[in-house]
Write a structure and sequence with these properties.
By secondary structure, this protein is α+β, with helices and mostly antiparallel strands. The protein contains 1 helix and 2 strands. It is elongated and about 35 Å long. It starts with a strand and ends in a 6-residue tail after the last strand.
Amino acid sequence: MPRAAHLTFPFGSLIGEPDNEMQQIEVIKAALKLIETAKKPGTIVDLPFKWR
């Protein structure tokens, strides 16, 4: 895997809390931004989003 975005969300909730569309959109945007900013293969970024 050339790059990865890591979240500490519960299993099965890959992009955010249920019914929290704004959070899910922000998670997707942050993951896509990683494609632009990762400098080398193997980059892993811990995203700053928190589960409530």
